[in-house]
Amino acid sequence: MIYVDADACPVKAEVEKVATRHRLTVAIVSNGGLRPSPNPLVETVIVPDGPDEADKWIADRAGPGDIVITADMPLAARCVDNGAQVLKPNGEALTEANVREALAMRDLMTDLRAADPFRQGGGRPFSKSDRSRFLDALERAVRKSLSQSR
Q1: Which of 22, 29, 38, 65 is deepest in the core (most CB within 10 A)?
Q2: Taking Cα atoms as reference points, which of 86, 93, 90, 69 lies closest to residue 132?
Q3: Which long-range contacts link 23-26 to residues 24+ away (Cβ below 8 Å)?
């Protein structure tokens, strides 16, 4: 199963494409506002409004053999702890080796922004090379998941 933290996720179409090729099911999880896919392998899950409801839903279900797509570091850490493979939309894999550092960096940046309300910025724009890296990483993750389930 592939779980997608769908709010503001730029690679939903790519996930559906790869999942369809491998006949894997996908759960697109959000608080609403997404058009459901007609693809029978793709389930659109609408969770109640509220902070982190989609994250809780995914973290409660994702485990060994599953793949989670998210840019949310606390969710990524929970899913890695549960044994799932986690990919950011830019293709970066989050693992036991790097997820704690990514979570600490996220917390540091949150603190810096809070200390300086005039601090501008955010991430760089999502690019074609990010999309390409994501597709390559997702293909590798799917193959790893399928080989583990045999």
Answers
A1: 29
A2: 90
A3: 24/142, 25/1, 26/1, 26/2
Q: What is the CATH number of the domain that holds 78?
A: 3.40.50
Residue reference for tokens 């109640």: 48
Number of domains in the chain: 1
Q: What local confidence, expressed as pLDDT, does residue 100 receive?
A: 67
What domain range includes position 124?
2-148
Which among 146, 130, 147, 148 is positioned nearest to 19, based on CA atoms? 146
Query: Can you give the pLDDT at residue 106?
Result: 57
Q: What's the rounded Cα separation, in Å, for the pair 78 and 100?
A: 10
Please, what is the average pLDDT of the chain?
88
Strands 85-87 and 93-94: antiparallel
The secondary structure of residue 48, as a DSSP letter, is P
pLDDT confidence band for 32 (50 / 70 / 90): confident
3-state secondary structure (DSSP) of residue 93: strand
